[in-house]
What does this fold into?
Amino acid sequence: MQTGANVLKVKNKQDMYWKNAVVALFSAKHYMPECDVALVTNVSVPDEYRSVLDLAGVHIFQCEFDSFAFDATTAWGLAFYKLCALKAMLNKGYEYYISLDTDVFVQSSFEDAFFEMDDYILLHDRHPRYSLENEVGFNNEIKAFNGCDRSISKYGGEFVGGNKRNLTLLIDRCESIYKEMQERKFSTSYGDEFILSLVADSIHNIIKNADGYVCRYWTGSFRYITTNYKFDPVSILHVPAEKNDGMIRLYDYIILNNCVPSNRKAHRILHLIQPSLLTRFKILYKFVTNAR
It folds into this structure.
């Protein structure tokens, strides 16, 4: 379980994730210097990455993958580590927590999120239409688990923010869902988002959409981009398709210059402004093939 389901063909997967983590943490510390920024991991950090994180003032916490653990055949089984890590971090004495995926770039401060976390848990709801193929599959699983015909909102796992009291409630309920899944031998194809969404639905009165702070962008052949990286800009750019491309080039930039690039340069590197040349060829090929 060294990788996510969308990078199965990538070589040197662990290096890819380390480099993504450096970009995420380095950029977060750059724009939020007054906050503790930390990597939570269950393995030793290689020296070349640890040295960069140490220089940036990033903490490193070791946390075993000893809860929310599914077998290695479970799609997105590794993603459940985020819940495990959040559970462990709630014992560290902080009043507020924000959990981020590794494939993100922080482009500004999101200090105002902490004011909202006095009252709410912030989760990212991409609110796609119900008939989208991925959403149909998700809600079919939810209905199979719940035994009812009601759909629920699907929250992403790339951003979870809240105060200690509310997040303790969230994790306690996540553990209840996990326990029931284990007892029923119920498996999901949607990782931590399956459990998070079920819990969020049950405590919807303290859930608020984090869309003002984070957005997920798809920059490959399936291109799904909003201009809120620049206009009414969010602080956190989640770019899953750039794990092994744009995020690696951002890592190289940080190592070479010991600073984050300008937002405009980052947008270009992450292919938000326009697709990569390879992606454009793939789109053109698909168009020509379909036209025949």
In short: Residues 164-184 form the longest helix (21 residues). Residues 120 and 205 are 8 Å apart (CA to CA). DSSP finds ten helices and eleven strands in the chain. The longest strand covers residues 155-163.
